[in-house]
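=== RUN LOG ===
request id: a7f3
mode: sequence -> structure
chains: 1
length: 368
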Amino acid sequence: MSIHKVSDGVFEIRWREGGRNKSQTVHGSYELAKKIERKKLSLRDENRHLDIKRDVNFRMSALIDRYWTQYASKKRSASREKSIVEGIRSNLGRLFVREVDGDAVNAWYEKLTTVHGLSEGTALRHFNVMHHMMEKASSIWSKETGIDRNPADQVEVKRPDDQRDRYLSEDELRSLKGALDAKQYRKGTRAINKTFYRLRLIVLIALTTGMRMAEIFGLKWQDVMYKEGLLAVRSKLKGGKMRYVPMPEELASELRRYPAVIGEDQIFPPKPGATSGRQRLEKSFERVLKRAGIKDFRFHDLRHTFASWYMMNGGDLYELAKILGHSNIKMTERYAKLARKHLAKTGSTAREIWKLMEQENSEKANVG
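=== RESULT ===
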């Protein structure tokens, strides 16, 4: 599918369906054309989905067994996923895979919170397992299962972190930077506090690139592309594509100064003696927030801060989607309203954020 501009306010949508090329002219905005394109794509896929073979009788219980053996059992979170797949089995195990459509997945998903009392975050983890399993069922196992698209794609899930609109104001940006700078040294000395020195760089990366916490912890030194001014993100997108995010010069300077751990290729390897593969920094981050006087703020909100300031500085919505790694533009459209409320400014978002954070420090120096 593709959209071509014919003239101002006129776009032509082109797609292929049933072995034939089709097109439709749309009078209006590009956003309207995109909405119509998505609807056409959905209808085309729905018709394709109805062509499955009804004599394929592969049950969900068999799919769950195969998924557990080939994927879930090999994950670090296997113990947790075991209870999730068994929960799916108890609800849907007796159905044929071809009978589990979008409505069935949605009904199962809603019961997680309404009947079983799970939090939205926990329900999302259950849904992610279901989505991954049905993705395999509709791709590499499609001949056995009788489906050729993922029914979980039709479900609108609630992502707790992505529902918040909290982002840092100019004053809060300066306060956070000041608190980070102050905490990087041990009290009353100029000796580096390793915990907060590490936290400082992690926060600055999140704030000026929009990367997720897990993506930052996954960074390796080889991912820092100084010449290109980019960071390579190893958490791959659908289709196996690697994503790259812009790296401002100020962040590059911070990375050059940060000491590498001998024998480690990760920039932020787990601390010595850590038994869990998952890294956390909630307590140290909360201490910095308290010092900065910032309330009702989570680490993930640093990502929202980058995205919000990107749009308030005249950023492009579709470029932002690429930077954030959103697979669906709907996830990014929440930031569009910010662009309409602010005048576009020149310069990159990351540099604007750095400028705001450094402004207070330079003003203090002038007073001194």
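=== NOTES ===
Residues 119 and 319 are 32 Å apart (CA to CA).
The domain at 60-158 is CATH 1.10.150 (DNA polymerase; domain 1).
=== END ===
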